[in-house]
Design a protein that fits this description.
By secondary structure, this protein is α/β, with parallel strands linked by helices. It is built from eleven helices and 14 strands. Strands 10-9-8-11-12-14-13 form a seven-stranded mixed β-sheet, sandwiched between helices. A four-stranded antiparallel β-sheet has the order 2-3-1-4. The termini are far apart.
Length: 298
């Protein structure tokens, strides 16, 4: 393998106690940096706080960043920002060394360097580590694949939606198993490009249709509904908010696989979907994260 030494970068990290403030801060920071100048990510942590990380190729103006965060979240949060330099490293090699093939039922998620390790009786899904979420190594993605495998043992859904597709791993898995068209949506253009590339790499490019959409807003949802199977590996709050529109796009007896949930969040999510006529069939817990299989009554 050719060594690719990534130059040293600069990173700023801090935590915020609620989702609304975290999004406000992330939006403000995004608006104040030119494209390519900074990479900004916000993730919900196990304790309910939101962790925000900024990566810079060049050393940032620390005072300017603190002023922006103060304007959106207050001085206390701004004072808590930690700045550090990330030393040069061969990140590609380091990442690939850590990403061993992941087995989930009939599916094996692997990188290019592990193609030969996929058993002939398994469906290999080649996904390289990338910016978009979902290499198969996260507990939520593995949980979804295990539940998808369970659904496909007794059902053959014809209309399938992967909501919030990320790298496209779930859409690719469904397309490989069913050899049917899969609709894959995401709000992020980068994720959609990557999902389409991964689908082509895995030989199902013609089966995976990607669409940029927030929730169920795109016209493609109306054209392809009602869905027999929906896979949604997102976050707890968006999943709760989408319970009503999702239920309106489901066929009778449809299966829904939900993930991206910390285990303490599952009760509220299950209740939201139960109120729309979906009942819990299976609950998988992996590494502190939960994946749910729900069935629409009828």
């Amino acid at each position: 393998m050719t060594t690719t030494l990534t130059p040293s970068t600069h990173r700023a990290t801090f935590a915020i106690g609620d989702e609304q403030t975290a999004k406000r801060v992330a939006d403000l920071l995004t608006e104040n940096f030119f494209e390519g100048e900074a990479a900004i990510a916000a993730f919900e942590g196990p304790a309910g706080c939101w962790d925000i990380t900024l990566h810079f190729a060049q050393a940032p103006d620390e005072n300017a960043i603190r002023e922006l965060v103060t304007a959106a979240a207050g001085e206390e949060v701004a004072r808590s920002i930690s700045f550090e330099t990330v030393e040069a490293r061969d990140w590609v090699k380091a990442t690939l060394d850590e990403l061993i093939p992941v087995h989930a039922g009939r599916f094996v998620v692997h990188g290019r360097h592990d193609r030969a390790k996929v058993p002939p009786n398994k469906a290999g899904i080649e996904i390289e580590a990338a910016l978009a979420f979902g290499t198969g190594h996260h507990g939520t993605t593995r949980g979804c694949l295990l539940l998808l495998d369970e659904v496909l043992k007794a059902n053959r859904p014809r209309r399938v939606l992967d909501l919030g597709t990320g790298t496209g791993v779930l859409a690719i898995a469904a397309a490989k198993a069913l050899r049917a068209r899969i609709l894959a949506s995401d709000i992020d253009p980068l994720s959609l490009r990557l999902a389409a590339e991964n689908a082509r790499l895995n030989g199902v490019g013609e089966l995976v249709e990607t669409v940029r959409a927030s929730g169920f807003s795109a016209p493609q949802f109306e054209l392809r509904a009602p869905f027999d199977l929906v896979l949604a590996n997102i976050l707890a709050n968006p999943l709760r908010q989408m319970a009503t529109p999702m239920s309106r796009h489901l066929a009778s007896g449809a299966h829904v696989i939900l993930s991206g949930l910390l285990t303490p969040q599952t009760t509220a999510v299950i209740a939201s979907y139960r109120a729309r006529g979906l009942v819990l069939k299976r609950h998988i817990r992996i590494e502190g994260w939960s994946s749910l299989l729900l069935v629409r009554a009828g």
